[in-house]
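Teaching assistant's notes for section 4

Start the section by putting this record on the projector. Ask students to predict, before seeing the second block, whether At1g61320/AtMIF1 LRR domain-containing protein will look compact or extended. Collect guesses on the board.
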Amino acid sequence: MDSFTPSCKRSESSHACVGRFTRPYLFEIIRELRRHHRNAFIRFVSDFLRANRGLRRLSLHFDMKNKAQYRRIVDRWISRAAKAGVNELELVPWHWRRAYEFPWRLLANGRGSFFTRLKLGRCRLGRHYDFRRLSSISRLYLADVNISQEIVIDILRDCKSLESLTLESCSSNATISIAPPELQLRELVVYFCFEITSIELSAPKLRRLQYYGDSALLSFKSVPCLEHVWLSYCTSDVAKYTFESLLPELPRVSDLVLDFRRLEVVEFDEAKASFPFSGLKDLTVNVFTTYKDDLIWIAALLEAAPFLEKLQTFKKASEVRTGNEGGGILWQPTNGFQHRHLRDVRMHDFEGSDVEIAFARFLTERAVVLRSLVLTGDCIYPGKSFAPKLRRLQYSGFSAQFLFKSVPCLEHVSLRYASSNSAKYIFENLLCELAHVSDLVLDFTSHEHLMKPRLCSPFSNLKDLTVDVFTTRRDKLIWLAAVLEAAPFLEKLQTTVTTVGSIDHAGNGGGISWQRSNGFQHHHLMDVKMHHFEGSDFEIAFARFLLEKAVVLSVCHGRRWTEKEKSHLLEQLTAGIASSARIIFSVVEKVVPYVL
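Reveal the predicted structure now:
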C-alpha cells in the first residue's frame, strides 16, 4: 500500500480532519498488512513441506533483513525438507552477503543423505562445517562463498559421490589443489573467482573443465579423460602463457573453447605449436583484439590439430579499420601444409576487413575437404555451450542465435522471438539442432510467406508442440504441416495464429495446397488445440488436414459462436472426411505456456 484515501465523501474540513487522523496510522497499517502476508506465506510453505512427501526440489531465495527471525524460519524449512526426502536444495539470501549460516546441525544422524544437489549463494559455511553429512551430494554449487584450500580438500574427501563442482565468485587467496585418490569428479567450473591464484588438477575421471577469470595458473597433473575445455580470460597478458604452457598440457581434448576478452597482438613465435592436438575435433575462438591482429596464431592451431572438423571464430576489433591495413596472413605453413579433416567453418562478427578476407582465403586454400564456410555479421557470444545436464531452456528476446555443442539431456525448450526475420533462422538452422527435445514452444513473427521448410532431422522424441505465430494472410501453415511430418511421435499440438490485416473467410484462400506423399498418416497425434480460432479459410483447411491425419481434435478459440455458426463450421470441417475426432467449441483466452 502506497497511499490511503477515505472512501466516503465529506465536507472539505471533515475530509482534512479524517486525513490528519488517519495519517499517523498509515505506516502501522502497512506494517500490519505486510506482517499478515508474510505470516500467511510462511504458513503456506510450512504446510506445503509437511504435506508433500514426494517433493524433489526446494529453492529458497529470501531476504535476511531480520536475521534471527528469518534464520529460524529457513532452518525449520530445511529440516522439514530433509525429513521429507528432498533431493535438490538451493539457498540464496538477498541483499545481505553471508548473513545466513548453513545449519549443519540439522543434517545429523543421516538426515542429509537425501540431498544429491546443493546450491549455496551468499551463505556462510561456518567454523563447524561438516561435509560428511552431505556424502550423497553429486552436484555442488557455491556462489559468493568464502572458501579455503582446507574447505576444498574436505569437500572432495567427504563428498564421495561428487561429480560436479562449481565455484562462482568465491573468495579465496589460496591455491586450489584437487588430487584425492578416489575422486569421482567429472566436471569442474570456476567462474570469476579472481582471488584464486592457481589450480592444480589431478582428477582421473574429469571430463569437463570451464574456467572464467583473470590469470589463474592451471596445472594438469593427471587428467587422462579430459575432453571438453573452456578457457575464458579477462586480462591481456595471457597469450604467452596459454600457447607456451597451458595448451601443451591438453593434447587429448576433443572440444576446446578459447575466449580472450582483451588480447594484445599474438606473435607467431608464441602461437607456433610443436605439439599435436591428436583428438581435437571442435575449436571455438572468441577474441577481442586489435585491428592489427592477423590471426596467424589461429592458423598455427590448425596445423597443430590435423583432425579438427569444426572451427568457429568470434573476432571483435577494438578499432574499426577498412582498406589496406594488414596485408593478410603472411606466414605460410611448412611442407605445403593441407588440412584434410576441417569441414565446417563459421566466422562470426565478419566485417570484411583485409585480415578477415585473407584468413578466409587461407582456409579455402588449405582445407581441402572444406564443406561450408559461413561468414556472418551476427554478434554471437558462444555462451556456456557445455551443459551435459541441461534439461530446460527458455529464451525471450529479439534475434539471438544459439550454438548447441553438447546438450544431450535438453528436453524442454521455449523460444520467443520478436524479430520479423527470425522464421528463416528457426527452420533452417535452429530446429535441426533440437532433434531430441520432447517439449517445444515456438513464438515468432513472420512477415514473409513461409514455404515448406526442409527439416533434415526427425524429432524422434517430440511429444508436445506449441506454436504462436504472427504472420501474413498468405501463410497457409504448410511449414507447420512439415513439422508434423518430422515429428512422428507428437501427441499434443497447440497453435495460436494471428494474421496481419483482415480475415479471409471460406472461399477465398485455397487452404493447404501441400499434400504429403505416400499417404502420410500421423498415428500418435491425439490432442490439437487451435487458440484464437476465427474460422478463416486457411484455418479451416488446416483443421481439415488434421482431421484426416489425427485421432482426436479439440478446437479452442477466443470468441463466442452462435449455434448457426457452429453448425456451418462443423459442415465445413467434416465435409467429405470420415473421422471420429471430437470437435469442441469452447470460449478461452489466448494461452501459450512460455514458461515450461
